[in-house]
Amino acid sequence: MNNKRVYNFVIIGLVVLNIIILAFLLIKPSQPIKRSAPKNFRSEIVKTLRLNDLQESRFHNLADEHKQKMADIDEEKVKLLYPYFESLSDTSLVVNKDSILNQLQQYERKKIELTYLHFKEIKELLTKEQLVDFDAFMSKVINRLSGSRK
């Protein structure tokens, strides 16, 4: 087989592959992932907990602080993940994988602990009358964290 014939087979193969991919994308109905926006979720929580204006303001501040803390931790995790995975392609890069995995574990633990404290702070915002709604709030949050769509 000469080079021209090989190239023809490769081109035909790529065209067929592209047609199959296009057909798959057009035939398979795409279903958007339904995830409520943070602002909508926050307003849902405000309604669930029946927060007054002052509580709502404090709630939004707590939520923003928590979001920032989680983002800071995620940023630190990325700094660890990059050399960990980069060591696969750059064999000259020496990394202590066990140390990196332990640090990542500590960051995840910190995120869980901070989230627990965040919910505790929200609970402390509530009056006795509102505390009855706290279980419904936690149920919504747990469903959201676990990805459930109840």
Describe the structure.
- The radius of gyration is 25 Å and the shape is elongated.
- With 150 residues, it is mainly α.
- It has 2 domains: 1-31; 36-146, Up-down Bundle (Four Helix Bundle (Hemerythrin (Met), subunit A)), CATH 1.20.120.1490.
- The protein is 80% helix and 0% strand.
- The longest helix is centred in the middle third of the chain and has 37 residues, at 53-89.
- It has 6 helices and no strands.
- Helix 3 (53-89) runs antiparallel to helix 4 (97-125).
Distance between the termini: 60 Å
- As residue ranges, the low-confidence spans are none
Rg (C-alpha, Å): 25 Å
Strand content: under 5%
Overall body shape: elongated
Keywords for this entry:
Four Helix Bundle (Hemerythrin (Met), subunit A), 150 residues, mainly alpha
Task: Summarize the structure in short.
The chain has 150 residues and is mostly helical.
SSE topology sketch:
Layout: H1 3-27, H2 38-49, H3 53-89, H4 97-125, H5 128-131, H6 134-146
Helix pairs in contact: 3-4
Protein name: Periplasmic heavy metal sensor
Keywords: Membrane, Transmembrane, Transmembrane helix
Organism: Aquimarina litoralis
